[in-house]
């Protein structure tokens, strides 16, 4: 039948289902990550450049996509294609799949275009059956090894493919260990392991309902399907969401001949980075385990040795690895993260990828690679994830305060940082307590992919087992989160929520401090201090500054913030909010008096009391920012925010101001609004209460003159918020200018005093009629928080009730308050720029919303040729680098 229809229909080529690699033929290469996944593409590439890689083949991501398109049915023809590809591997290795004399074993490994460490599934030792295990014994003469491999397969297959509980197997293992009176897995003799296999098969049958498959192809195909399925597990989806990985087709599946690191004392396995992933130092870095299979290192079950100790074990292999390090770095022009296995003294490469690294390491590696001419400066700039630079600005513990503190234990310095927090013994606890506002350290024996939510919420991660390549360490480094791993003095009881260290017990209420740069675990809070920028960091920032076109300003409301931002490289202030200044204890009363005043005179009286405070604040900020522009936004929030809403609070205010509590209550009721965000706020306040604007402008001008007289070059810019019509701005601009002129005259100031007057563009209408508004504006600043809120109609404060659902179900790719919605909000920004510049080609335009510190949004800002972005102080270096990257990419 099929042949008959095939003849009539025009021929369509069936999709290619396998891409092989091996000595005789290699079909893929490193550029095909989208199709073959990172792992598959690089296995092919390593084979091509002559490195020792066990042969195998990749089932491309398109097949995984097809699997999902057909609602989870295996694509027709895949089993045939797999069999053909296995035959090639048989020829390459001279072994036979399922054979009882010379069996070929394979691994089935997931691998998407972007690496998702530990998120998806892998099954090792496939092809072992009751028959093949005998073949394995014959082939290797190592009975213990063969049974060990078989029990691992049944366990992994049951676990990963059949969804069994790992504990079921663990229990059986313990029974046998007890019987043989041993404590370690490795002490069990061959006979014992054989017994373990028999028991494993029994629980397998009991739980799964059918016997462990004795047909190797059945094992293989089920495992391939399990890998497809692992693409869409909850944890994998979560990981992609946290990491912002979108638009991938699925995972590829790699089927590869097994090599064995567990064949005795001359075998082993390990992982390594070609440079130090924490600091970037150019030294081979990693760890290995003797007589073990790969997953033992990553799972954190045994604590491995550092590679520096390998020389003593096998110097030849160590030297070989050093040669490979050089070769890989030269070929990939970047630091690599590798997996390798040594089978009876022969080295095999199992994986390479660009190594995940901390920001400090990224910066150092990039600068060093430029020095050795492997990459250009532009490439170096593009290599550093701009958002990660925040990590470099984080404080560390002071040496002095560390001296006086109780040191509890020392683990491995897995991911740098210095944090203090309460102890959370489970991921769920970490999430709940962190969401309630507490700083917590997640403390676990080891972490697993199920814990990522808790790991994200914690300020730091502390584990008692596992090395620097354990799950905890890898994930933490990727996120720039502080982590100490393998602190073996910790005896953690997750059920009782306690940890015993040296005979002392600590619980949820205790506070620990951990230092991810040294591995120290300390009791209580430890003083911290600001970091010192490294030479490599300064170099990168210099290159970035030479490259970028946009200026970078900061959002700062206090002299301290302004000063800090300036140290981070801010070239001015893009947004100073004045309302914070009214909340401080010494002024809030005058503010309230102003709001409660029932006549203009009384209001002016109260404002006159506020004026000197405002003036002082401005002097402080102008001084910290001397020589650089400071954009001051006039009062923005609705007035009710300044009044207490509870009875007791209202009584206190009434008492302090000598009025009746009922008067306060009445005013609060008067000011009540159904939609305060859309209510009486922004420039609407200044329109109805012009005296507020007059007071603020007076304070700005007085402060400027005071500074100028002290030879401090103050450069204020006055920004009027929430403008939606030409008239609003025209009227307020006139009042502002009048006030400036009047104060200048009153102060008899004869110097130059040009204070630009502009507006925030944060109401969609303002963007649409930007040409009209530009008529009366010296500058625009896009307030993208409100602009996003008003464009989508999403209240920023209430979005969490539906945003998670939108993100999980693909209704939104990202939170539009974090990264600019280019299609909608971006379009308004483009319109605003065009409209504004059509009237005034020199109009200065910036952005001062949260987006000003987000690299993707910054790229957009550069594309519409904004003059500057403004962001919080800690994000200033990020914005400098991201602006440079945008410029390089835009070319
Ligand atoms: P992950 O992406 O979680 O690291 P991998 O597919 O890399 O998963 O495999 C898990 C572990 O199994 C790794 O340590 C790897 O080196 C090891 N491994 C995978 N395939 C083989 C193989 N063919 N021979 C020996 N070890 C293997
Ligand atoms: Mg791996
Ligand atoms: Mg606003």
Describe the structure.
- The strands form seven sheets. An eight-stranded mixed beta sheet has the order 14-24-23-16-17-18-19-15.
- Helices cover 46% and strands 17% of the residues.
- With 891 residues, it is α/β, with parallel strands linked by helices.
- 50% of the residues are buried.
- It is elongated and about 105 Å long.
- α14 (359-371) crosses α20 and α23 (585-596) packs antiparallel against α24.
- The structure holds adenosine-5'-diphosphate and magnesium ion (2 copies).
- Adenosine-5'-diphosphate binds at residues 54, 107, 109, 118, 122, 124, 256-259, 294-295, 298, 339, 341, 350-351.
Give the end-to-end Cα distance, rounded to a whole number of Å: 56 Å
Radius of gyration: 33 Å
Total helices: the number is 36
Strand content of the residues, in percent? 15-25%
Q: Biggest sheet: strands side by side, in what order?
A: 14-24-23-16-17-18-19-15
Which geometry do the CA atoms define?
elongated
- Given helix and strand content, the structural type is alpha/beta
The overall strand count is: 33
The poorly predicted ranges are 1-7
Main beta sheet: 8 strands, mixed
Ligands present: adenosine-5'-diphosphate, magnesium ion
Percent helix, as a range, is: 40-55%
What does the average pLDDT come to? 93
